[in-house]
Specification:
This protein is α+β, with helices and mostly antiparallel strands. The protein contains four helices and four strands; from the N terminus they run H-H-E-H-E-E-H-E.
Length: 138
């Protein structure tokens, strides 16, 4: 009788872990959610403080000519930009949505000078795919 209870507890723990992972990434874009990005950046900042490593934050903002909220097509563009960037960065870099129409990229171990080279390469990549005109990078 104890075995089914143990199995039930293990399944519940596995389900809880799965649900936690599901909330870590946006289902539609595969990018880190704003909460997950904030959590991971906090962890990286603490690590960088201990190790004295560089961290560089790059923010991509999709701008519209008008002040209207982003529509579904614009959200698709932001997701597509995220997909392209995710393919071009290292596994150790963090990419996530931080606000509507905004992607943030945390480059671990990269100073501002090297980050400029990364940004230049990403701009060329996005321009090749026709995604750069309405994108501000800071």
């Amino acid at each position: 009788m104890a075995l089914p209870r143990v199995a039930s507890c293990l399944l519940e723990a596995q389900r809880a872990r799965y649900m936690t992972q599901m909330r870590f990434y946006d289902a539609a874009s595969g990018l880190l959610t704003p909460e997950a990005f904030r959590f991971m950046v906090t962890h990286l900042l603490r690590h960088a403080e201990r190790t004295q490593e560089f961290l560089t934050l790059v923010v991509f903002v999709a701008e519209r000519a008008s002040r209207d909220a982003l529509d579904a097509a614009d959200e698709w563009v932001v997701s597509e930009i995220g997909r392209l960037i995710r393919q071009a960065i290292r596994d150790t870099d963090l990419l996530g949505r931080t606000r509507e129409g905004t992607l943030s990229l945390m480059l671990a171990g990269i100073d501002v000078e090297r980050a400029t080279g990364v940004i230049d390469r990403l701009q060329v990549l996005l321009a090749r795919h026709g995604m750069a005109p309405d994108l501000q990078i800071s």
